[in-house]
Design brief:
4-stranded antiparallel sheet, 10 strands, about 450 residues, porphyrin biosynthesis, Glutamyl-tRNA reductase, 3 domains, Beta Polymerase, domain 2, alpha/beta
Length: about 450
């Protein structure tokens, strides 16, 4: 079984593209079921955060599976497949596994070692389980990835110095406004990111917290934690005129704060400035708002340069984390390779046994009456010949199974011996040179195709 990931993140695409490819949490089950219905998808899981969208699949056939994902993303976003390919990355097997382990460990985040991603990956896996879109391979992959993320944090302390997205937002406010003592903040949205941001704001001196959310009850719950005030969403702009800082992080798929709204707010404030930080993807605040006098508007792409103080220690921890990831990766590959190669070895031995029995039956029929001793000698001879012929292919296949190219050797063995392996498409299809290049380019793995002649 192959593993592949196609995704987009803060390095591969600008915010306006990422927000079109983002998936709201409330619709994840429906989208996973849609993807599972596409050709070539045996299992799938979806990670969608403020800075990344990644789709992990267990494809029955690599090209078909990846083309299905691109078609799926095109259906969701309305973008052409060619445009999506320009902004997405793709990894297969060894590199896909390493990528997930690095993501869950915080090594692929905008802010190195961020804490939230571990919980986000865990939540994504739980939602895939609820949607029943995973299979044994993806289940084991995500379970080991989550274990790896926990181990990295425990053994390296990479998340000890806080530089998460909410922390970065607070640092940005401090850089812009100076001391936050006595300042007031209006938080739009009452989710986890909003709550974490308020925690940091209050810890840094903010004295007045106002929370507005479409679900008023949720706004009340969050406001009570900080002795703040909850306001209904339709009163949002009335209370915004009282705030020095606006933090917006909702799950809306459209702008909830528009220029005409802010112009009225600024009129009520007599021009007193407001700092606005939009940490939602898709964005909550229309970018045109930053053109209004007195408004300083920042979005998630501005957070990249906010926190530097703790990154030196995190980089040192990241080096140790890479070693842990390599250990966990090798362990998973041993499991996956064994799972993939054992059915092929079983099928190979079954084929040898069937040939042996068939030819023995023919020989005994031709030879006529034979004593039991003679039959035993002939049977032993046939058994020895089959075992010796299959010995090297079996031993070599077990050894190759522990390399990054193990699944390729396994499929080639299936193809050479015309093996029918349950769950692996029966007879494996050979890969012509043009597909070999495409596979290697997409996976990024160091596949030496010349070595396949050693089989």
């Amino acid at each position: 079984m192959l593993i592949a990931v196609i995704g987009v993140n803060h390095r591969t695409a600008p915010l306006e593209v990422r927000e079109k490819l983002a998936f709201p949490e409330w619709g994840t089950t429906e989208w996973l079921n849609k993807l599972l219905a596409y050709p070539g998808i045996d299992g799938c899981a979806l990670i969608s955060t403020c800075n990344r969208t990644e789709i992990y699949i267990a494809p029955v056939e690599l090209d078909t599976g990846m083309n299905s994902v691109w078609s799926f993303l095109s259906e969701k976003s309305g973008l052409d497949i060619s445009e999506i390919k320009n902004y997405t990355f793709c990894h297969t097997l060894y590199d896909a596994i390493r990528h997930l382990f690095r993501v869950v460990s915080g090594l692929d985040s905008m802010i190195l070692g961020e804490t939230q991603i571990l919980g986000q990956v865990k939540k994504a896996y739980e939602m895939a389980l609820e949607a029943k879109s995973t299979n044994v391979v993806l289940n084991t992959l995500f379970q080991q990835a989550i274990t790896t993320g926990k181990r990295v944090r425990t053994e390296t302390g990479i998340d000890q110095n806080p530089v998460s997205i909410p922390y970065a937002a607070v640092e940005l406010a401090k850089q812009s406004l100076g001391s936050l003592d006595g300042r007031s903040v209006l938080v739009v949205g009452a989710g986890e990111m909003s709550e974490l941001t308020v925690v940091n704001l209050v810890a840094n001196g903010v004295s007045s917290v106002i929370v507005s959310n479409r679900s008023y009850d949720r706004a009340v719950q969050l406001a009570e934690k900080f002795e703040g005030k909850a306001v209904k969403f339709d009163s949002l702009f009335q209370y915004m005129s009282q705030a020095d800082i606006v933090i917006s992080s909702t799950a809306a798929q459209h702008y909830v704060i528009k220029p005409q709204d802010i112009e009225q707010v600024m009129s009520a404030r007599n021009g007193r400035p407001i700092m606005m930080i939009d940490i939602a993807v898709p964005r909550d605040i229309d970018p045109q708002v930053r053109n209004i006098p007195g408004i300083s508007l920042f979005d998630v792409d501005h957070l990249q340069n906010v926190v530097d103080a703790n990154l030196a220690e995190r980089r040192q921890a990241a080096v140790r984390a890479e070693g842990i990831i390599e250990e966990e990766l090798n362990e998973f590959m041993r499991w996956l390779s064994t799972r993939f190669v054992v059915p092929t070895i079983t099928a190979l031995k079954k084929m040898g046994e069937e040939i042996k029995q068939r030819e023995l039956s023919r020989a005994f029929n031709r030879l006529g009456d034979l004593s039991e001793r003679e039959k035993k000698i002939i049977g032993s001879l046939a058994n020895s010949i089959v075992n010796q012929l299959l010995h090297n292919p079996v031993v070599n296949l077990k050894q190759y199974a522990l390399t990054p190219e193990g699944h390729l050797y396994t499929k080639i063995t299936q193809n050479i011996f015309n093996l029918e392996v349950k769950g692996q498409q029966g007879k494996a299809k050979g890969l012509p040179p043009e597909k070999r290049k495409k596979f290697a380019a997409c996976s990024g793995s160091h596949v030496n195709w010349e070595h396949t002649t050693n089989l």
